Amino acid sequence: MKIILQNNEQDCLLACYSMILYHYGREISVYDLYDKDMIPPDGLSVSYLKNLNVKNNISMKAFKISDKSAINLFDNFRFPVIVQWKKKHFVVVQKISKKKVTIIDPEIGRIKLTLEQFLNNFSNYVISLSPDEHFKEVKKKSLIYEPLKKTFINKNIFGYIVSILLAQAVALFFSIFIKNTLDQKYNLLVSIMLIIFLIIIQIVSFYIKQVSQQKTNILFEKEVSKKLFEGLLSRPILYFRNNTIGTIIEKINLKTGIRDSILFQLLPSILNFLSMFSLILYLGFISLYLTITLILLSLFYLGITTFLYVAKLQSNMNYLQKTIDLASTTQEDLSQIDQIKAQAIENKITKKWYKKSKETIEPYNHMLKIDSISSAFGQIYNYIGVIIIIIMGLYFNRLGIIKFSDLILFQSGIMMMFSVMLQIQNAAFEASRISIYSSKIEDLFTPSPLIQHFVDPSSEYSIVTNKISYSYDDKINVFNNVSISIKKGEKIAIVGDSGSGKSTLLHVLLGLYSYKGEITYGYKNFRKNLGVVLQNMTLREGTIIENLVDINDPIDFSRIKKVLKDTNIDMLIDSLPNKIYSNLFQNGKNLSGGQIQRLLIAKSLMQPDGIIFWDEAFSSLDNKNRTNIYNKVLINTNYKENTIILVSHHLDVLEYVDRIIFINNGSVYIDRHKNLCLSNRDYQEFLNISQVTYKR
């Protein structure tokens, strides 16, 4: 059964669902199961799964097994099934036997558990999925195959293959050289010349390998890395909201693991395996009996080490699961560190962490035990294998079948054979890992389509919307058929109750969320004329001026000075030793929240005639600084060419803007504050609830 890993904690159920679809022949990735690049605000509800079932022609049944001891109830299910795990996670149960349960955890992979371990984590709920009469198999072409093909199937890889074959040939001919030297076939001069020749071949092999690897790496960056970056950055903003930075970085880093596995494991293993056949053929001409003995020893070695390798892999999975539990616990507690410190419960948290950490000891010791057994077996078997070959060789030598010098060749052969067997094991594991890694990142190799909009630079309006609608699940609209026109230079505030869709509307107007309808911008280069402060934005590591403008473009220092003064951040910057060239830490950690927000607001104002979007840009400002921006920016003629559209829960801003966009229960109204107060009863109630008094 194909293993599909989750992208984050939220989509573990989708990963399990995808694995079931693959099992029945419908190859649909986790990303393809997403609706609009995000999981709905209420999570993976039953209605969400029902929609997936309709799209994929799947019948679903859910069960609750109250009595965990009734494990025999699983006999009634058609495997694989999805079960709830640890009350907050989902895994696929692939098989249940009398003593073992095989599950696939989308967080780490395939694991074999005892019945006791399974029942301790099983949370009673089972989801059974099966194809209905309309189900059709769908084969999906791997999107990462072509970039990898262009990278690794070319003349560069031919050079890499030649280098490995030369290195293998040197190793083989060196053993032959030792054999012939013992047989006194070479004089001193010939021996020296052959040694020099082998060294030269080895150096040439190393040089070819280095050049081929370097060229392959360059091609890999072009064909794989660049396309992955393009695909990733083409994703809508909801994709990044639904995935943590750590998850995205992990995806990016997987490409390196794929490259290294192919270059350093798969290719050498394949070539060494082919070289092994050449070695067997050569040794067979010398002594068929010793060669057969060598093959049998190698196959026995492969069987035992494969068994130990699988056991070690399973033990590693169990250890990984425990370390993930520990990491999850510590991460959850650290996110509440303020409360922990305030309540002085450090000892309680320490005990909990210590308990979780102790649970990792047993699987870790078991892993070390198997590793020690495997290492000891390899060493012992090497000795025994060599002894067996020597004993049999001496016997055949007495019979006159082989020469004593041939034993040197067979001794080298057994070492090479054992090495190749280990490489074959690693190659099988790497091939499986490449498949899993590729599945996790291949969706990024198809760029997402751009959100379409229209441009009319000659228009007097900054933004004109024509019947735009937005919904999270294509059923309930956050707002519907909204048509508004915002003139260039207008200052607009979007207000409404919490959760009414204020930020959503701003993101749609900004062109960050997909929508139905049409939006026309009154700027030729809308994005270049844009200033923006969103809730998740912060400062980057670098100088202050690097955070304010693109230093590669012409810099208007008079504009910078004016904006910094109007946002009341100029005095802070002047107090720093290097002024505007002072360095900021990552995320602006050497500044306060209010100072960061004022710098972000200043950055958004650098375009003299641009359109500006602020989403709760005043949330960290005190009354003095907020009022200062109202007076120095919103009603300042220096910014009369700037269109400003803002979302704020500070309703005192309504006195300083030209018009209000009021959102209430999916309806959107736009008018002057005074007119809305007179004509819109919902707006009146909204203001009364907010307990705000206005001058006009």
TrEMBL record:
Residues 6-129 form the Peptidase C39 domain. Gene3D superfamilies: ABC transporter type 1, transmembrane domain (1.20.1560.10), Cysteine proteinases (3.90.70.10), P-loop containing nucleotide triphosphate hydrolases (3.40.50.300). SUPFAM superfamilies: ABC transporter transmembrane region (SSF90123), P-loop containing nucleoside triphosphate hydrolases (SSF52540). The chain crosses the membrane at residues 157-176, 188-208, 262-282, 288-311, 376-396, 408-429. One of its GO terms (biological process) is bacteriocin transport. The keyword rRNA-binding does not apply. It is found in: Cell membrane. Pfam families: ABC_membrane (PF00664), ABC_tran (PF00005), Peptidase_C39 (PF03412). The keyword Transferase does not apply. InterPro entries: AAA+_ATPase, ABC1_TM_dom, ABC1_TM_sf, ABC_transporter-like_ATP-bd, ABC_transporter-like_CS, Lacticin_481_peptidase, P-loop_NTPase, Peptidase_C39. GO terms for molecular function: ABC-type transporter activity; ATP binding; ATP hydrolysis activity; ATPase-coupled lipid transmembrane transporter activity; cysteine-type peptidase activity. It comes from the Bacteria. Keywords: ATP-binding, Bacteriocin transport, Hydrolase, Membrane, Nucleotide-binding, Protease, Protein transport, Thiol protease, Transmembrane, Transmembrane helix, Transport. One of its GO terms (cellular component) is plasma membrane. Residues 463-690 form the ABC transporter domain. PANTHER family: ATP-BINDING CASSETTE SUB-FAMILY B, ATP-BINDING CASSETTE SUB-FAMILY B MEMBER 6. This is LmgT-protease and ABC transporter cleavage of the leader peptide and export of mature lacticin LMG. It comes from Lactococcus lactis subsp. lactis (Streptococcus lactis). The lineage of its organism: Bacteria, Bacillati, Bacillota, Bacilli, Lactobacillales.
